[in-house]
Each structure stands twice: as structure tokens, then as C-alpha cells.
Amino acid sequence: MAELTQSPNRPRRLMADYLKTPWAAIAALLIAVAILDPGNWTAVVIFAGKALAHTGQYILFAVLLLSYLKATGAEVMVARAFEGRETRMIVLAALFGGLAPFCSCEVIPFIAGLLALGAPLSAVMAFWLSSPLIDPPTLLITAGALGWPFAIGKAVAAVALGLFGGFIVKALMGHGAFAQPLREYKPAGCCGCGPTKQEKPRWRFWADPERRARFRAEFLYNGVFLLKWLALAYVLEALLVSYVPADLIAGVVGGEGVLPIATAALVGMPAYLNSYVAPPLLAGLMEQGMTAGAAMAFMVAGAVSSIPAMAAVWSLVKPRVFAVYLGLGLSGAVIAGVVFQML
């Protein structure tokens, strides 16, 4: 009887779930163009299709790399960065932040465990600031959309921001700040606990059936995830190039000086776009007149204010630590944009 009463609602739930996906957004946007500007529909589709095909090689390599890291258990190496002297921990945490293949929910128990075990907030902050900015897939996708100089610049900015934040927090802690940074925390258990330092990666994972299964599952999941978000990103880029006047973009985030860069950082933080969508859209904005420094500031500020990163910080630490996190992210984004513009 329960099956009979629940089955009529199943198609409705499936439709509701579909409407929340990037595929539905892509379909809606293309249908809108077909209705409102049918003469430009083909150009929009061709633009998005060519851009997606160009980035396809980077997507494939990124998915293979991320699946390999997850199957081998390479993320356990990150835990070892939080051992030893505080200065060493900050440096290693900033470096590993750009390499860790964590999902957003794995970061929460990982960081909570480190803070609970006494890892200094300075090293944890270094990891938190650098981790949302870059990882292997993001690096490759950024290179495909904006070129290797921009991708390398973003990777350097990620590490530099981690170091900047880590040492600022270390200095504040030296004056008595953040004596009790951690809220009372109870793991939600969405991904289980983070990796332990006793575990070891298995680089030849294919000898283990369970790890082979993990590789296949990660490959399929990440492949579909990147494909749908990048397809949406390139459709949005095509619409941006077609319908947003270049003079408007150039007037807001174009030109020389710090003001356009600071404006881009302020706009980028609340208007968060995930690291897979942002590069194609920034490519379109730069074609319309956005400066390279403003694009870097927008990307850095937007990544720091990502929903998973902010939720992790808010759920674990007290409000004053959260405020410092956002302040470091915003100021670091402006500095990164200024330096990148100069170079």
C-alpha cells in the first residue's frame, strides 16, 4: 500500500531534482535564445560547443588525475603537513592546500580533528585559504580557459594567500588572540572521518579490487560533474560575449589602478562561482575589457567565499575567526590582483 501511495509523487520529485541541475539551466538558456533571438541560437551553440571541445582534453586528464589520487589514498599525505614546528606547518599546509583532492564535506571532519588535537589555527588557516583556490582539476581547467600563465599565477596566489593568512594569524596568536578558536563540533558523518596519519597511499592501486572500484566511481562522478558545470559555463560565456556590451564591462572592471581590482574582488566574493565555472566566464569578461588583475582578484575572492569553504569555517570556529578568514581572503585577493596586473 505504501508503494502505491508514494509512486505518484516519484515523477514529480524526479522532475524537481532535474530542474535544480546545470542541465536544466542549459536547456532553459538555449530555449530562451531560440525564442527571443533565433538568429543567434546557432552561433551561441557553436561557440559553447567549440570551447567545451577545446577544454575536453583538460577535463579528461583532470578526471583521471583526481580519480588516481582518490584511489591511491594520496590525501592522507596532507595530514603529515600538520606535524612539527609551527612555521613548517604553515608552509606545508599552504602547499598541500593546492594538492588535496578533498570533497567539501571531507574537509570538515579533517580540519575539526586537527583543531581538536591541538594543531595551531595558523596552519589550519593556511590550509583553509589555499585549498578552495586550486587543485589539480582546477589548475588544468583554468589553463584550458585562460592559458597557463593565468593558471600558474592562480596556483602561486593560492600558496601565497595561505602563507599570508597563516603568518598573520600566527602573529595575532602571539598577542593572545584566538585562544579558543573552535566551536563545539559534532561530525555529521557525510563522508566519514578524514584520513589518519598512520595510513599509507597505495600508488599501484589496481592490485586492490576495492581501490579499482573507487577509481571507476570517482572517474564517472567527477567526469559528469565537470562536464555539466563546464557546459553551463561555456553557454554563459557565449551569452556574455553576445549580449553584454564591452563598454559596460570595461567601465566597471577595466582600466588601470587598484580600484578596478578592488571592485572585482568585492563583486567576486558575494557572486561566488565554483572554480570550474569561473575560468570560462572570466575569459569572456576579459574579451569584453576586464583586466587580468581584476580577473585574478575576482577568481581568488570568489573561491575563498565558496559555500563549502565558508560553511566549513562557520561550523567549526567562532565568529571572530570567521571574520578574519573573510578579511584575509578579500585583502589577499586584492593583493594577488595588483601583483598579477604588474607582472
Structural class: mainly alpha
Helix proportion: over 70%
Number of helices: 17
Approximate shape: globular
Membrane topology: Multi-pass membrane protein
Protein name: Permease
Keywords: Cell membrane, Membrane, Transmembrane, Transmembrane helix
Organism: Ruegeria sediminis
Architecture overview:
The protein is mainly α. The protein has one domain (40-180, 187-342). 73% of the residues lie in helices and 0% in strands. It contains 17 helices and no strands. α10 packs across α17 (319-342) and α13 packs across α17. The longest helix is centred in the middle third of the chain and has 35 residues, at 209-243. The model is unreliable at 185-195 (pLDDT under 50).
How do the helices and strands line up, and which of them pair or pack?
Layout: H1 2-6, H2 10-19, H3 22-36, H4 41-72, H5 76-79, H6 86-97, H7 104-116, H8 121-130, H9 136-146, H10 148-174, H11 209-243, H12 246-253, H13 258-268, H14 278-287, H15 292-304, H16 307-316, H17 319-342
Helix pairs in contact: 3-11, 4-9, 4-11, 6-8, 6-10, 7-16, 8-10, 9-10, 9-14, 10-15, 10-17, 11-14, 13-15, 13-17, 15-17
Question: What's this entry about, in short?
Answer:
The protein is an all-alpha fold and 343 residues long. Helices cover 73% and strands 0% of the residues.
